[in-house]
Design goal:
single chain; 145 residues; mainly beta; At1g16640 B3 domain; 3 helices; DNA-binding; DNA-bd_pseudobarrel_sf; Rest_endonuc_II_EcoRII_N; hydrolase; EC 3.1.21.4; type II site-specific deoxyribonuclease activity
Length: 145
DNA sequence: AGCCATGCACCG
DNA sequence: CGGTGCATGGCT
C-alpha cells in the first residue's frame, strides 16, 4: 500500500508569485514520497511526464494546474524535480504574495481543491511553529505503507 | 535542495 | 505584440 496524503500546504516564495520578475509559472514540489502521494503518480520512465489537475477554490471556481516531473537528468540534462505549474492566474486573482500559504486538498473521490491563507492570518501551531522546512507541510494523511 | 531566472514558442 | 507557460540552466 501507499500513503494517501490528503492535504498539504506551501508557503509561497517570491518567485512563486512572480514578484521576482520571472515567468516560471510553477512552484517546486520536493521529491519526497509523502508529498508526491498527494498527486497522481506519473510514469517516471517517460520524459517530462505530466498530469493536468482541476482544483476547485472556495468560491467553486475551477482552475487547471499542471503537475510535471522534469526529469531530463535521465535524458541527458540536469533536471530532476517536480513542479506544479500554471498557477499564476490563480495567484493573481487571489492576490497572493510571498509568505502567503496555499492549501491543497484531495477528497475521497480524488477531487482536488485549493484554498489559501494570507500571512497575516497564518497562526503558529500549538508548538509555536509557523513555518517549517522548505515551506511545505503535510496536513493530513491516510493509509500506511 | 529550493528558489531565481530566461529564451523561445504559442496564442490572444 | 504582450502575456503566459514550457523547458531548462543558474545561483546559493
Amino acid at each position: 500500500m501507499t500513503f494517501e496524503t490528503r492535504s498539504i500546504t506551501k508557503v509561497l516564495s517570491a518567485n512563486d508569485t512572480g514578484e521576482t520578475g520571472g515567468h516560471q509559472a510553477g512552484i517546486l514540489v520536493p521529491r519526497e514520497r509523502r508529498l508526491l502521494s498527494f498527486f497522481p503518480s506519473l510514469n517516471e520512465k517517460d520524459y517530462n511526464p505530466r498530469a493536468h489537475l482541476k482544483f476547485v477554490d472556495a468560491s467553486g471556481l475551477e482552475w487547471e494546474f499542471a503537475f510535471i516531473y522534469y526529469n531530463n537528468k535521465f535524458f541527458g540534462g540536469t533536471r530532476n524535480e517536480y513542479r506544479l505549474t500554471r498557477m499564476t492566474r490563480f495567484i493573481r486573482e487571489a492576490g497572493l504574495a510571498a509568505d502567503d500559504e496555499v492549501i491543497l486538498s484531495r477528497s475521497e473521490a480524488d477531487e482536488y481543491s485549493i484554498d489559501f491563507k494570507r500571512k497575516s492570518e497564518a497562526r503558529p501551531d500549538e508548538r509555536g511553529v509557523l513555518k517549517l522546512g522548505s515551506g511545505w507541510k503535510i496536513v493530513d494523511m491516510e493509509g500506511r505503507r
